[in-house]
Design a protein that fits this description.
Length: 143
């Protein structure tokens, strides 16, 4: 059954390519890796990146981005989340250092090394990354 599902996905991608053009469509091994990780996902937009491919899609109305290298190896998945989905240890770290700042957007990124929470602050034009243990990884000011 799993093979049939993957075969249908590849055939669908191929037919879409024939009908609408193949501007940005990765090789079959990338498509198969995507289908295994996200078997019920439809309406995927592919974008070629430096050393691989990024897929954009929605799951239950939530936008997702997933990166694969050119061999089909999964690199990371990212999605926007709401404040209520952030673990307490991460929120405590954020409040300790940025108590007066208002979070504009929050993303969660999963990769081979773990989970990273990315916070965007609109007023400060800044982005902060905190890992799942509450450690600060990166701060970027876009001034």
């Amino acid at each position: 059954m799993k093979f049939l599902s993957i075969a249908i996905y590849v055939i669908h991608a191929f037919l879409s390519c024939l009908l609408f053009g193949c501007k940005n469509l990765p090789d079959n091994h990338v498509l198969l890796a995507f289908q295994e990780k996200f078997p019920d996902t439809k309406n995927v937009i592919w974008e070629e990146e430096n050393e691989g491919w990024e897929a954009h899609f929605n799951i239950q109305g939530v936008e997702h981005w997933v990166d694969f290298d050119i061999t089909g190896k999964w690199l990371e998945t990212e999605k926007q989340i709401v404040i209520d989905e952030i673990p307490e240890i991460v929120m405590n770290a954020l409040k300790t250092k940025y108590s007066g700042s208002k979070v504009y957007k929050v993303y969660v990124e999963e990769n081979q090394d773990g989970v990273i929470y990315e916070f965007e602050f609109k007023e400060e034009d800044m982005e902060v990354e905190i890992d799942e243990s509450g450690n600060f990884l990166h701060q970027d000011n876009d001034e």
